[in-house]
Every structure is written in C-alpha cells, then in structure tokens.
Amino acid sequence: MPIHLPRIGHSHHQHDIESKDKESYLPSSPQPSRGPSLSHRTATSSSNTSSESAPQSILKKTSTSSSGSTSGSGYVTKRMAGLTTFDRTDTLSSAQESDDEREGNSSSSTPATSVSSLNNQCPLPQSSASQKFPFFIMTLSSTSTLSFIALPLGMRPMVLDAVNAAWRKGISKTTQVEYQKELMNKHREKGCEGGVWEVTMNDNSWMPSSQDKVSSKRILINLMTSFAREGYSLTSSFRTSAKDSGKDTLIFLRGDPDPEPIFFAVAFHSHDRIWIIDAEAEVGEALEEAIKTSWIDGLQGVRTRERHCREIRLRGHPWTAHSTSSLISARCVHLIIMKSITHCETGYDFVGTVDMADMEEGEMPVSFYRKKWGASRAIWKMAD
Fold first, then answer.
1. Which domains are present in the chain?
2. How far apart are the first and last CA of the chain?
C-alpha cells in the first residue's frame, strides 16, 4: 500500500496555504464531475471555543492558525505533528490533495455542497404528503456520538428514550448541526426536515470500559427496535470515509411498521468469548448447544455476564488464531451461529453487522438478528 506523506510547502506558498486553512474544511472539494458531498458546512464562529473539550461534530474541522512568517522547517514540523491529531474529517490523502489543488489552481474552488456546484439540482428525491422521505442515516462518531442525517423530527424523542434506556450514564447534549445554508434550504424543500442532528452521550459509549461493553451494544438494539416500530429497517452498514476510525454508518429504509419488533445481538469479546445479548432463552440455549458440538476444542464455560447476556467461553483463541486450521475452525463457528439462528424453527432474520469500535480497539463487528416479520430474507429449512 503506498504511503502518503505530507507535501513540503515552500516559503512563498506557506502564508497563502495557512491563511486558507483557517476556514477550510477537509476533505477538499472534488471536481464537479464527481457527485456532491454533504460533508461541508460553513465555518463556525470563535464563540465555539468553549466547547472544544466536547467531541467534535462529524461536519466540523478544528483548524490551527499560525504566523505566515514561520520558516519552511517549522511548517514541515507542524504538518508532521498534525498526522497524529487528525479530527473526524481529516485523512493523509485529503491533506495532500488539498495542497495539490492549491498549487495547481490559485483560484478558490467551489465547495461541493454549494448550490452552484449542483447546477440547481438537488440529489435528494422529491417528498410529498403521500410519499415521505424514504430513508435516514445514522453514524457512530467520535467516542460517544450518534450523528443523524434526515431523521424525521418526530422520531427524535424515541431516539433519546432508546439511548437512555440502554446507556445508564445518560446523554450529555443534543446538537442541530448547521451546514451550507442554500443546500440546507434545498434539502428542506425536498422533505429532509431533520437535517443533521447529533446526540452525544456521557463517557465513551464507543470506547466503553469492561462493565459498559454490553450496554454499548444495547444502544443499537434499542434504536433498531424503535426504528422498526416506525417502519424503518437497517438496509446497509459500511464505512463512509477512508480515514481509520473504523466505525460504521447505518442506512435505514422506510417500509411497513412492525408493531412488536424483537432484536438481539451476538458479539465477540476478547479472544475466546461470545456474548448473546437480549435473546430469548431458547435461542441462547440452542446456540450454546450448537457451538458446543461444533467447536473441536470444546467450551471452557458458560455464564450469565449480566442480565439478559449469556457469555460462552471457548477453549483456545479462536478470534486471534494464526494457523490455517484454527482460522478455518473459527470461521465455522460463525457459520454455525448463522445456521442455528436463521433456521425456520428459530425464526430469526439476519439483519446485518456493525463495526462499533475504532480499528485500533481490535474489536470484531457485532451481528444483529430480528424475529421473523413480513418477508423474511435468511430463514431456511432443508428440503423434505
């Protein structure tokens, strides 16, 4: 993989570069042929300095100003030091691309979120009274933030209730995030009334201590349950940035409401443990039996880690194995889990997996399952 290093600026470019950095937002704007981006917003005023200790918004970039008379070597030192202090919108490649664009084009570029860059066209679908906005996005951000785009305003109270029910440390603040004004108006005209809204929890919900790790997973279980009652189901989860945070963005699509949704999660902890969170008792027992008979090294033990969380501890080190045979055996455990849960007698659909932690945490994705309702996707049975 090529390694991107910051470009060394010459002294006659430095003052122009750093003065533009004060109110620029990375990543830099793509060429007009690329699709518009929703990641830009207008620069905030200096009054926001009092909240610097709080987790930064996914649409916000903290800029550092310096004197234009700094020497070239000082500039290199600053850029190298910045490699370890990127915020949620910074990457090595975006920083380099920004420098390249400034050197190649002295004129100011049009932000990707400006109305002029859209040629008077908004990428969002038209909304009406009979056809509401069909989806919304939820991103796990920073160490304790949920960031929503296009979440209906009426669903905000249920988000707060779901988070408070799972996360005993509570909510620190909620924020309506402002971005490019003309684009915000365009989105509202199309029915995207929610805009960008963030919920920040107390402590570190995405980097929890040992006693809070199960509660962290329950946040998503509760949210998926609440969304399903309103007819929104998880349709995709993925990383939307090339930066190295690792946490996922989830897209929910609107459909028919489920009056009594039931969700549970399967998480993989440490190097040898499986957590079955909020599953019905018979589901947990079936999983325990299936894993016991399929894992060749057997089980060290089974216990209730906390209320409604069954912990199965395997012998060996399946999640950190290196040998080919051990890796294959560990993959078979995942296959057995999927086979057992989605069997017709169990009656659960596979919903998806979500990366809930930064990559340096070394945590595996969490799998979510939902009680069969409507058109099933994964429930199966052997042919007679």
1. 1-27+69-102 (no CATH), 132-261 (no CATH), 262-384 (3.30.1360)
2. 50
Q: What amino acid is encoded at 226 in this protein?
A: S
Tokens of 45: 């005023």
Distance CA 22, CA 244 (A): 24
Q: Higher confidence at residue 180 or residue 295?
A: 295
Q: Which runs of E-coded beta strand occur in 29-144?
A: 135-141
* Cβ neighbours for 201, distance < 8 A, ≥ 6 positions apart: 144, 145, 146, 163, 167, 169, 170, 171, 172
Query: Would you tell me the crossing angle of helices 11-21 and 72-81 to the nearest 10 degrees?
Result: 40
**SS3 label, residue 273:** strand
CB 63 within 8 A of CB 22: yes
Confidence label for 238 from pLDDT (cuts 50, 70 and 90): confident
Nearest Cα to Cα of residue 14 among 81, 65, 70 = 70
If phi over 0 gives left and psi between -120 and 50 gives alpha, with beta otherwise, what is residue 10?
Answer: beta
State how far the Cα of 232 lies from the Cα of 241, in Å rounded to an integer.
24
Q: Measured between alpha carbons, how far is 130 from 351 in angstroms, rounded to an integer?
A: 28
β-pairing, 299-306 with 263-269?
unpaired
Structure tokens at 54: 């709080």
Helix (H) or strand (E) holding 253: strand 249-254
Q: Which contiguous run of DSSP H or E holds residue 148?
A: strand 145-149
Kindly report whether the global pTM for this prediction surpasses the value 0.70: no
Nearest one of 42, 54, 46 to 87, comparing CA atoms: 54
d(CA 89, CA 315): 41
* Burial class (CB within 10 angstroms; exposed 0-12, middle 13-18, buried 19+) of 35: exposed
